Predict the structure.
Amino acid sequence: MKIVTRTRYGLMFLLNAKEYAQMIGKKDKLNQAIKIIIFSITAAEAIANFEASEYLGNSMLKKFVQTGFRPKGNRQSKIFHKWIFLLEKVEVSQSKRENHLANLDEWIFIRNRLIHFDPYRHRKEKILQPKKYKIPGPGGKLYTSFKKIPMKTLKYGELHEINLTKARKCFHNIDSMIYDYFDAKNLWPPPSWANKHYGRRSPFKRKGGAWSVHMG
């Protein structure tokens, strides 16, 4: 049985994300959604950095952690490129890779804006909303005019863009990607963690499944 002592730190964040994703009936749903997104993306990066140490030597691993091997001029996040590298390493199918990576950068972008919070971006602005209506003109023709109506509030910033539904989708996206990575690699976190986190989907509960174990 293969034993690797590395992934506990990232797995802890994934458990935290799941805990908040499964909570029902909390009054402060925005606070809950923020925690789900931050823990999910933090887990994705921490696990990626640890997993890469199995494939890379020290100098390349340092570059991977710092840049994710992101090509120069590429605007996608380094975490996104880290998971491209890992999913290709264990040969996750192209269809699954595309599905997992489709919205990953969107979640990472939101997490980054929450972490590096900009008060100016997060604001409300009241404006007069112009309303179109037709008025008769010379020769019986109708002309468009505008009338000012009561104030309309515009909201800006990431706190107005996220909700619990989106946050849970983020967690399930990340969680499914990490599951498929371990499944393709056939090298899993320890049974105590896998059984708790994945339940019936844990490889240690699947009948006839062959597996190796990450210990950490």
